[in-house]
Amino acid sequence: MPLKAELHCHIEGAAAPELVIRQAQKYGKDTSPYIQDGSFVWHDFSSFLAAYDFSSDLFRTEEDYARLADHYLTSLARDGAIYSEIFTSTDHAGKAGLSPKAYTDALGEGMARAKAKTGIEGRMIVTGVRNAGVESIEQAARFAARCGHPLVTGFGVAGDERMGDLEDYVRAFEIAREAGLGITVHAGELMGWESVKAALDHIRPARIGHGVRAIENPDLIRRIADEGVVLECCPSSNIALRVFDSFADHPFPALQAAGCKVTLNSDDPPYFRTSLKREYDIAAEHFSMNDKALAAVTRTAIDAAFVDRKTKAMLLGRLDVKGR
Ligand code: ADE
Ligand code: ZN
């Protein structure tokens, strides 16, 4: 089994249904509209976000968030992951009355617990949510830039791509970039290749969340390859949200063959009935990747990680030992 690394997972979206049900019991909420027969129910992107927001609202205290991060990273490590970057959302925590600092410290505590048990390294990417508006995204960027938490190493924007314009977020990304944070932005998931081009033109990210609809434009694919921008691909998420009809139609192999740097990620694993391990299994089964090819994907992820040089060298060393 190749070692794994993940760059794209929303921590609130990683909460397993059992954990959400437990939280709902704690806070006296009815999960039945959103969880049925042990699985999340939704039918399109908007109802997915509704289920996601409902579940997120059930994480309210520092201990709730510490347990969530510990639970997710520990499960990831058991599946062979040595590194995990989680997207954090200060907006969601704010709704629960938790300050961005308390929320971030709590997630950091959970990550430390998971690392103590399993050795998994983790970092946080603070994300603004498009559907929350430009001011809220800039607020998230200002927090990311000044929080000083040692595990906060990146800034990104997620949420409903159909809302707002990437140009509106330039200021937020500049605040984060000036603070030395790594930059990633969701694009080319719900919207077409134009959104990926706009991300490259206006935001100049090191990585793009999804970016897979770049496949619609050969010039853009060449540009992504030439500029070395890394694509955080999430195949099961794309099939579940009907970005593509089937794994056979997924552009992961084509993007890789065109020279783009691609990685494998779970996005919001239980919502898409997946896990990082399953994404690697899918790549083996549907994209004909052997263990060596999968190990190379892990190496691409570590190379692209928003992590200090020393930690990166240590992680790459672990891959080398395993590959020998
Ligand atoms: N937030 C959580 N999951 C997301 C996704 N797949 N796309 C955009 N925003 C998200
Ligand atoms: Zn995402």
UniProtKB/TrEMBL annotation:
<dbReference type="InterPro" id="IPR032466">
    <property type="entry name" value="Metal_Hydrolase"/>
</dbReference>
<feature type="domain" description="Adenosine deaminase">
    <location>
        <begin position="4"/>
        <end position="320"/>
    </location>
</feature>
<dbReference type="InterPro" id="IPR006330">
    <property type="entry name" value="Ado/ade_deaminase"/>
</dbReference>
<dbReference type="GO" id="GO:0046872">
    <property type="term" value="F:metal ion binding"/>
</dbReference>
<dbReference type="Pfam" id="PF00962">
    <property type="entry name" value="A_deaminase"/>
</dbReference>
<comment type="similarity">
    <text>Belongs to the metallo-dependent hydrolases superfamily. Adenosine and AMP deaminases family.</text>
</comment>
<keyword id="KW-0479">Metal-binding</keyword>
<protein>
    <submittedName>
        <fullName>Adenosine deaminase</fullName>
    </submittedName>
</protein>
<keyword id="KW-0862">Zinc</keyword>
<dbReference type="GO" id="GO:0016814">
    <property type="term" value="F:hydrolase activity, acting on carbon-nitrogen (but not peptide) bonds, in cyclic amidines"/>
</dbReference>
<keyword id="KW-0378">Hydrolase</keyword>
<dbReference type="InterPro" id="IPR001365">
    <property type="entry name" value="A_deaminase_dom"/>
</dbReference>
<dbReference type="GO" id="GO:0019239">
    <property type="term" value="F:deaminase activity"/>
</dbReference>
